[in-house]
Amino acid sequence: MSTTSEQLADLSATTLLRFATAGSVDDGKSTLVGRLLHDSKSVLADQLEAVEAASLSRGQDAPDLALLTDGLRAEREQGITIDVAYRYFATPRRRFILADTPGHVQYTRNMVTGASTAELAVVLVDARNGVVEQTRRHAAVAALLRVPHVVLAVNKMDLVDYAEPVFAAIAEEFTTYASELGVPEITAIPISALAGDNVVEPSANMDWYGGPTVLEHLETVPVSHDLTACHARFPVQYVIRPQTAEHPDYRGYAGQIAAGAFRVGERVTVLPSGRTSTISAIDALGESVDIAWAPQSVTIRLADDIDISRGDLIAPAADAPATTQDVVATVCHVADQPLSVGQRVLLKHTTRTVKAIVKDIPSRLTLDDLSQHPSPGQLVANDIGRVVVRTAEPLALDTYADSRRTGSFLLIDPSDGTTLAAGMAGESFASAKAVVVQEDEDGWDF
Fold it and tell me: Which of 23, 49, 163, 172 has the most CB atoms at less than 10 Å from its CB?
């Protein structure tokens, strides 16, 4: 079985949208998600019955749609979201994978998890409170993770009498801030998740708004994955050598294609060794194919016997990334314990994990004005900062701007395996407008 380039191009356009919701505490994220699921007829009868029963037990007359996503007992008892809640639903126009992320500052790390693979982020704002620090933090995370589309959902418009000036002021402030971070597309929508205004159906209370509802935007936002244009990358996960009578000389390299496409006969380079060879065969689902593309899991065979093991990276010889032991990146610190200069860590990049040491933390981001506080010495939970890491072995690392998959990494505590930080290699924000604040001898910032 073989696949042509034309077929690959047809498959590059997808009907699947991955998106994440974020916002400050009590902005109504879970209610919005529940409303989306309920009004799009994506809730099973027994799920709705369970929510109705739970709502009655809490003394509520109407079903609390937030309970459709707040699945943990602690979440239901406190009325908050703690963990990332993933939901899968579909409409006739598109399939969706949704990550409902927490709003509390101490759970900002969960937004990094939810938004790392998202093509769109919905950032909620309470119309009564406007843009707050956590709103800026979520916008910064979305920008750092290069989420291409951001929706500002100004929620609880019913509590401000559906006033257009309130919406306009919040939309202008957020758009200005997110644009400075380099967010490429921002769409502002006034909603009431509780009442259902502009979530699935257009609102009769806001005739001054002529844009799409939340669901309409989700269904129509362009999401294109031109897989043939990506830098092809194949991290080796496992070496297959059956050494049986049927396959005495079989040597295959199994894994998931991280980006791009590979073809039989293509000249490739194995990193970090730098050895080159030619793809002699590609096996997918028990059959030989002429071409394979991300995110397929395949086995690649090479014409030459090369010492290859888990963690090596196969890339086209004409488009192989440079290897380095000095990683300069922006990180979101997600652990309770701080990250300090001189700390020994493990760096996990695709299937490769190497020893490393934090050589420097040049700056920490100040969210209010996007300035960079120089030489903080350490990063604490939910901080965003620049780091310089020296690895014990070379890494084939792309910049995050070129590849969200092979430009990202994790810093891990070697003593207990705790994830310390999520890193994005290369330049941080797309616009790179952040300014370094000079510090005088007394430690005051100007």
Answer: 23
Q: What is the pLDDT of residue 269?
A: 98
Q: Are strands 419-425 and 323-333 parallel, antiparallel or unpaired?
A: antiparallel
- Residues in a beta bridge with 120: 19, 149
If you search the block for the tokens 């800026």, which residue do you land on?
Answer: 136
Alpha carbons 443 and 446: distance in angstroms, whole number: 10
Answer whether residue 233 shows pLDDT above 70: yes
DSSP string, 2-21: ---HHHHHHHTB-SEEEEEE
The larger pLDDT score, comparing residue 213 to residue 225, is at 213
Residue 287 tokens read as 């059959």
Region of 163 (left: φ > 0; alpha: ψ -120 to 50; beta: rest) is beta
CB-CB contact of 282 with 292 (8 Å): yes
| CB 386 within 8 Å of CB 375 | no
- Cα–Cα distance, 316 to 266 (Å, whole number): 7
Query: How many CB atoms lie under 10 A from the CB of residue 354?
Result: 18
CB burial of 30-63 (b: ≥16 within 10 Å; e: otherwise) equals: bbbbbbbbbbbebbeeeeeeebeeebeeeeeeeb
How many helices, marked H, and strands, marked E, lie in the chain?
8, 26
Q: What are the tokens at 316?
A: 């086209």
Closest CA to 258 of 93, 407, 49, 443: 407
194-203, 249-258, 376-385, 429-438, range with the lowest pLDDT: 429-438
Spell out the residues 6+ positions from residue 170 whose beta carbon is closer than 8 angstroms to its own: 125, 127, 130, 131, 152, 154, 188
E-strand ranges in 257-350 read 261-263, 267-271, 275-284, 287-289, 291-293, 297-302, 313-316, 323-333, 339-340, 344-349
- State yes or no: pLDDT of 244 exceeds 90: no
> Rg of the chain over CA atoms, in angstroms?
24
- Nearest C-alpha neighbor of 373 from the set 437, 441, 440: 437
CA 103 remoteness from chain centre: 16
| 114, 98 Cβ separation under 8 angstroms | no
Q: How confident is the model at residue 137 (pLDDT cuts 50, 70, 90)?
A: confident
